[in-house]
Amino acid sequence: MSRRIASIVFLIDSVIMGLGSLGHGYSVHRVHEAIDKFPIDPVISQTLYIVWYSVSGTQLLFGAILIWIWLKVRAGDRSSLPIANLIGIFNLFLGICAIVYRHGDPFWSLFIVLGALLLASSYALKTASAPNQN
Q1: CA distances from 66 to 81, 122, 127 (A)
Q2: What are the pLDDT digits (tens) for 10-25?
Q3: For labelling, which of 13, 38, 121, 129 has a CA lying 20 to 30 Å from the CA of 113?
Q4: What ranges in the chain are assigned the alpha helix state H?
Q5: Whole-prediction pTM value?
């Protein structure tokens, strides 16, 4: 993978991860529709919503961190790429575990693809010989 393609893939992947927070936060209404009709302890349902929104925030934060890393790499500083690798591994592992747990639900393959693309583009950016050619 050329450095230019790796840079573009890294940036697009980062933006998709960050924008995932909007879809995640918006879809909380489906959680309300599913559980609000049942007599669930308010502490449990409130905690579920807190966790739901914290995941949205985490997705946004991951996207912002990755864009920050992308900007640093473009400036020639590759020192933050291990952080991108951790995020890529997390998404890859989450996707694999979720597909197994959800018995093949294809939605979770998005996490596998995003994680794998992030790892591949991060590796290509790390090993590319000319850091100022984006």
Answers
A1: 9, 10, 18
A2: 999 999 999 999 999 8
A3: 129
A4: 3-26, 28-35, 42-74, 81-101, 109-127
A5: 0.89
Q: What would the pLDDT profile of 67-116 be if each residue is shown by its tens digit?
A: 999 999 999 999 999 999 999 999 999 999 999 999 999 999 999 999 99
| Residue listed under structure tokens 């573009």 | 8
Alpha-carbon gap, residue 27 to 132, rounded angstroms: 41
* All residues at 6 or more sequence positions from 15 whose CB lies less than 8 Å from its CB, including other chains: 63, 67
Region of residue 76 (phi > 0: left; psi between -120 and 50: alpha; otherwise: beta) = left
pLDDT for residue 134: 46
Distance spanning both ends of the chain, measured CA to CA = 12
Q: Is residue 133 part of a domain?
A: no
Q: Has residue 47 been placed in a domain?
A: yes
Q: How many domains does the chain have?
A: 1
What does the radius of gyration of the chain's CA atoms come to, in whole angstroms? Answer: 17
